[in-house]
């Protein structure tokens, strides 16, 4: 019989919706066929796959891939799936995955040419969107620094649209340590800020974006702390040619990351 909301394994998995449980177990939930597909591309990441009978039939290739990797595939009722999912209209699949954390030294030791550093970003949707953008621009690592949201928050995972499984995910409590390590790894540290002394277009025109770069992004509400902007090699503003007061975080991050990606290519 399919598992119900009261089945112990469903109950245990549902607890992963809380950060305390995620931190204690080193596991998190991934929802929907696209995210599950990306998770299965990383060996030894998926711990268990839950699916309704209809979803397991519709996405039989994913169930077969999981089974071939010795991942338990468990049928659940619609009610159990709804309890595991955090969206209004779930797509029938939820996977339990192990954390993907990569140590800071290991990520920077791979000589990345483009890195995104999220410093104090509390909104999980924004964090996940920036992670997805960084992946699209070719960044090798995304560093969650300081009081930034948990990268395994359900909304952050969904907003990343699978990109969480494509890049090195680093968590580091001390943003200053990130800057020090980035410079030691040969990266230029640029802080994205609306009040930056350097203009993004000027940096691009003079070739300064062609070097390996770590971009710092702060929260949409408060931006980067002054001490991080001052500690960076340059504070960089995106030029506004129209009458808009500013860009939102996701848009600004996309402009900055793609400017570096273009220059490096």
From TrEMBL:
Any one GO CC term of the record: cytoplasm
InterPro entries given in the database record: Alpha/beta_knot_MTases, MRM3-like_sub_bind, Ribosomal_eL30-like_sf, rRNA_Methyltransferase, SpoU_MeTrfase, SpoU_subst-bd, tRNA_m1G_MTases_N
Pfam families with a match to the protein in the record: MRM3-like_sub_bind, SpoU_methylase
Domain RNA 2-O ribose methyltransferase substrate binding stretches: 29-103
A GO MF term: RNA methyltransferase activity
Gene Ontology BP annotations: methylation; RNA processing
Keyword terms, alphabetized: Methyltransferase, Transferase
Family of the protein in this entry: Belongs to the class IV-like SAM-binding methyltransferase superfamily. RNA methyltransferase TrmH family.
Designated name of the protein: RNA methyltransferase
Native source organism of the sequence: Micromonospora endophytica
Lineage of the species this protein comes from: Bacteria, Bacillati, Actinomycetota, Actinomycetes, Micromonosporales
């Amino acid at each position: 019989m399919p598992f119900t909301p009261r089945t112990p394994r469903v109950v245990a998995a549902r607890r992963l919706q809380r950060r305390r449980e995620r931190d204690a177990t080193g596991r998190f939930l991934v929802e929907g066929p696209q995210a599950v597909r990306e998770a299965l591309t990383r060996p030894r990441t998926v711990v268990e796959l839950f699916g309704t009978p209809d979803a397991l039939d519709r996405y039989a290739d994913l169930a077969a891939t999981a089974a071939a990797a010795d991942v338990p595939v468990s049928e659940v009722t619609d009610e159990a799936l709804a309890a595991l999912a955090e969206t209004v209209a779930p797509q029938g699949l939820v996977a339990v995955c192990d954390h993907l954390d990569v140590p800071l030294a290991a990520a920077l030791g791979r000589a990345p040419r483009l890195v995104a550093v999220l410093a104090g970003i509390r909104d999980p949707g924004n964090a996940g969107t920036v992670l997805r953008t960084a992946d699209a621009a070719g960044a090798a690592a995304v560093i969650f620094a300081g009081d930034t949201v948990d990268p395994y928050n359900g909304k952050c995972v969904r907003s990343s649209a699978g990109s969480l499984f494509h890049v090195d995910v680093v968590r580091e409590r001390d943003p200053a340590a990130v800057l020090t390590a980035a410079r030691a790894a040969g990266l230029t540290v640029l802080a994205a800020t609306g009040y930056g002394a350097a203009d993004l277009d000027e940096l691009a025109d003079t070739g300064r974006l062609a070097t390996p770069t770590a971009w710092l992004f702060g929260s949409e509400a408060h931006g980067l702390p002054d001490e991080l902007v001052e500690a960076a090699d340059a504070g960089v503003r995106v030029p506004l040619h129209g009458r808009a007061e500013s860009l939102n975080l996701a848009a600004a991050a996309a402009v900055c990351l793609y400017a570096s990606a273009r220059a490096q290519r």
